[in-house]
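Teaching assistant's notes for section 4

Start the section by putting this record on the projector. Ask students to predict, before seeing the second block, whether E3 ubiquitin-protein ligase NRDP1 will look compact or extended. Collect guesses on the board.
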Amino acid sequence: MGYDIERFVGYVNEGLLCSICRDVLEDPLQAPCEHAFCTACIHGWLVHHSNCPEDRQMIDVTLLRPLYRYMRNDLNRLQLHCKNREYGCQMVCSLESIDRHERECEYSQIPCSNAGCTVQVERRNLDGHLAVCEYRSRECPNGCGYTILSVEDTQHNCVAELRTELELLRSEMICRVEEAKHEMESRLDSQRRHMVQKESILQNEIEELKSQMSRMMSDVRSLMAAERQHRQELEQAELEKREL
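Reveal the predicted structure now:
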């Protein structure tokens, strides 16, 4: 949809009106037949039609182009009233700068920034509303440090609030201790399994060393027996030599 033509000051050229909504062009596009439309209007039209609403020539969305520069310049120079005129704003701006003005207009209706408040006030009155808003927050005057809403003033009890906070902290602490305990138990189990695995490996290595030691002792005994046998044979040979 375009800009309401009633907002404009002075004469508006027919060529600057949307061929569909008949209001002043907003975010305009132009067809090859040179008819101009608001972007939203022509896109909505082409969902159900395939021709220009003015001369019925065939058009496609890919053929739409931005408005000629001289037409854009004429459009941007048009003067119109702020949309907040009904609330008291008397500003008249060029179409080129109207959006910037309306974003900052003191007569714009904006929502209260306090959570839970649904009131909308003029931007210029926001500070006054915030000062009396029933959803405004402030620190407890009794010094407990809590931030309370004005609607909760009569129900606020420092002792009860602190007791609740203490219970929450205690519960949180218990949860953290349990988490730390579970984590330590998990680590200990992991280390225990690792130690058992290492012990098993070391035990196997010890058994292998014992087996090697046993084989070596057996070899030593065999060598000692062979040596005794050899010595006896030498002694026997010596006796036979003497007899000869």
